[in-house]
Request: fold
Amino acid sequence: YDTILEVDEQTVSSLSFQAGDDTLTFLRDGASWSLQGDDTFPVDSAVLSDLLSYLSPLRAVRTLEDITDTSDYGFADPQNEFSIVDEEGRKTTVTIGATNDSTGDDYLMLNGDEATIYTVSDSLRSAVSDDLYDYAKSEELPSLLTGDVTGISLTDSSGTLLYRLILDEASDSWSVADEMGTAEKGNQEAIQEAISSFTSSLYYMDFLEHNCTDWTPYGLDESQTLTVTFRSSSASSAPAVSSDEEDSAQDETETEPATEKSRDEELTLTLFIGDTDDSGNYYVRQGDSAQVHTISSYALEELLSGRSQDWAVSE
Reply:
């Protein structure tokens, strides 16, 4: 294969291409990227670096010369066009025409040179997503194990408590309290199953908005609130001690070793939960974030449908 183009990301100042019906332009400043027209958009620099890697180098499978009619190769209505501008202001254009039905390779033109057309693999074209948010770096959800969770509460849109699940860490048993604060012994199996479904599927499905100002389309203006307290074993650390206390602290540790949980700070995850999309996934907002995502119904359904009486041990 012949190398027809090499792009050094470190020299790129802007990158433009078609994503669906839109032309996206990303600007590079050092190691970071921004979306032209929206400085608040959280660009995932790693995604753009990966996209540029398909141009570093770009190799041709075949070279077709002395072309007289580029429309035969799909350039009257190209599938995509990339524009790369370097720090010196030099512009390179890469236009992708039709796909060869026999080989699956794409026809490609460099810098508008209609006399020469190349065939290249479809990897560059396939690397482009039509979804803007595939180029965004999302906020994160905590990575939880079932044993990390110490409490769960659910309130409705009016702020009324629907239930509160409380873990007694000493006995490793759950109790359930209603809106009046009355506590009962919890159904351990049902609670553990619901928490297991939640923790095993606690990840975002889709990233929909990064700076939402109208929660109404998602039902997040009148949302339920799921509050989860947990201890993250990955963040556990022993309390700091002075050098004078070190020896005695070590002796105490040897005789009464602390558990991972006893050393962990208790953390809180707050999820505002709205309507569901066409796939049944729930629209969610994490804490005071302005981002909108979806989480699968499998993760949330049991916790959202339960009430105090459902979690208590039946007599």
Notes: The chain has seven helices and 19 strands.
